[in-house]
Amino acid sequence: APAERRVTEASFEALLAAAWRRSDDLFALVPEASMGRRPIALRHPFSFYLGHLPAFAWNQIGRGVLGLGPMRSDFDVLFERGIDPADEDGARAASRDVWPAIAEVIAYRDEVRRAVLARIPDVLARAEDVLGARGRILQLVIEHERMHHETLMYMLQEHGAARRPGGAPAFVGGAGRAAEPRHVPAGRVVIGADFEAIPFGWDNEFGRAEIDVPGFTIDSLPVRNGDYLAFLEAMEDGARAALTPRTFVRCGGGLAVKTIFGPVSFEVASGWPAQVSGEQARAYAVWRGGRLATEAELRRAAFGEPSGGVRARPWGHAPGEPRHGQFGFRGWSPAPTGSHPDGASAFGVEELVGNGWEWTSTPFAPLPGFVAYARTYPGYSADFFDGEHDVVFGASWATDEGFLRPSFRNWYRRDYPYVFSSFRVVREEPRSRRR
Ligand code: AVJ
Ligand code: FE
Question: What keywords were assigned to this record (predicted)?
Answer without folding.
Answer: Iron, Oxidoreductase
